[in-house]
Design brief:
Blueprint lengths: L13 H16 L4 H21 L10 H16 L4 H7 L8 H8 L3 H26 L4 E2 L2 E2 L7 H21 L4 H17 L3 H18 L6 H12 L2 H8 L7 H19 L10 H8 L15 H9 L1 H20 L7 H17 L9 H18 L7
Antiparallel strand pairs: 1-2
Length: 391
């Protein structure tokens, strides 16, 4: 398996080597430690900036980076017009994570991109095993105590598992190497995701898998209902009842999500251009809370498009949608090239899963999830650049 012998050709300078190592460390640490991942990202950014200056290189990034950057600018404008600018400006620090795109694009070129995907899948498998142990041994097996794996929250954990499942399925369907390893770890990933009891991530993973099956061969989509049926037959009661509650309006969490959408629409009506400000939905939620709401407060609206519109305004939402559309268009063009086929399929599956799950959870605002998503989206673009001269 390539990940066990992870190595890169000798770079032309020590700075490049530091950047490559930091990006590899970032790919390995995202699913275990947000602190370590952010430190390594900072190191990679410094190496990237030093390289740009030392080699007199021009700034380069995939085409989808520009609407993402514009979305970042709209976020800063929203923070300036926020109902509480002091809070909102601090929250914009997450925009630093957007630099993942040009950094990975520069340091994960050519064959390195596929090696990093292998690393991400393998780390995801290890994380899945941690979750299974928590469920089976440590009794993280109910809604009051849900397994969170190696991360701080079950929603974050289920979201990263969802993305890794899409990457693993893409490797199985479109890859020419490491397919046996992917087939070996996929059951652990799926079981671990199921045991998180996170319905939005289940639906997102199913949607991502369905799109990958459709791209490969539409007949493969028949596997999804078969898998769900088998799961219902053999799953524990807690898992079965959780599945059956999807879309049930008598379920308190479902009713509360509808109430959040109503509150979000009211915020958009009052602040259509710049929103209430980053990180201000939570403080203002009691003011906009409807009579049907279950929770007295909510930190966010559990819906990505609604959260962006309410928090940052309709122009920011339009830029975010442009970022998604540009990403899918660019990845779709790369799906036929042998060197980018698997990675492009991974990106398409991951974006699909994020979009579908994002109707139930504000996953785009979760730092660990966002970092992994941006890496998976950028790897095919980096691979398309080919290996650097001298490698």
């Amino acid at each position: 398996m390539s990940v066990l012998a992870l190595s890169f050709p000798a770079p032309q300078s020590r700075t490049v080597w530091v950047g490559i190592g930091a990006v590899a460390g970032l790919a390995a640490s995202m699913q275990f430690s947000i602190a370590a991942a952010q430190i390594l990202l900072g190191l990679a950014v410094v190496a990237w900036l030093v390289r740009l200056r030392a080699e007199h290189r021009t700034f380069q990034a995939p085409s989808f980076f520009w609407p993402l950057a514009a979305y970042g600018v709209a976020t800063l404008v929203s923070a300036g017009f926020s109902t509480n600018p002091a809070v909102s400006v601090v929250d914009t620090k997450q925009l630093f994570l957007f630099l993942i795109v040009p950094v990975v694009y520069d340091f994960a070129r050519g064959r390195r991109a596929d090696l990093l995907l292998s690393l991400i899948i393998s780390v995801g498998a290890a994380s899945a095993l941690v979750g299974v142990v928590q469920y089976g041994v440590l009794n993280y097996d109910n809604l009051g105590r849900r397994m969170q794996g190696t991360l701080s929250h079950w929603m974050t954990y289920s979201g990263t598992l969802m993305l890794v499942i899409c990457a693993t399925i893409a490797r199985l369907l479109f890859g020419t190497r490491d397919r046996l390893w992917s087939a070996f770890v996929l059951p652990a990933l799926v079981i671990s995701l199921a045991l998180t009891l996170t319905r939005g991530a289940w639906v997102g993973a199913a949607a991502g898998a369905a799109v990958l099956f459709l791209v490969k061969d539409f007949r493969l989509t028949a596997l999804i209902p078969v898998t769900i049926a088998i799961s219902l037959l053999v799953a524990p009661d807690a898992l079965t009842s959780r599945m059956q509650s999807i879309g049930d309006m008598s379920d308190p969490t479902t009713r509360d999500r509808v109430a959040m959408l109503e509150a979000g629409l009211a915020m958009v009506r009052d602040y259509p251009l710049t929103g209430v400000g980053p990180d201000m939905v939570g403080p203002l939620y009691p003011t906009y809370r409807t009579a049907t709401a279950v929770q007295a407060t909510n930190p966010h609206l559990h819906n990505v498009p609604m959260q962006i519109a309410a928090e940052r305004g309709l122009p920011a939402l339009a830029l975010w949608l442009a970022f998604i559309a540009t990403s899918l268009r660019e990845l779709w063009k790369m799906r036929r090239a042998p060197e980018t086929r698997t990675l492009a399929a991974t990106g398409v599956g991951a974006i699909t899963a994020m979009l579908v799950a994002g109707f139930f959870e504000y996953n785009f605002g979760d730092s660990e999830f966002l970092m992994l998503l941006l890496v998976l989206m950028t790897l095919p673009c980096a691979a398309a650049r080919g290996d650097e001269a001298g490698e």
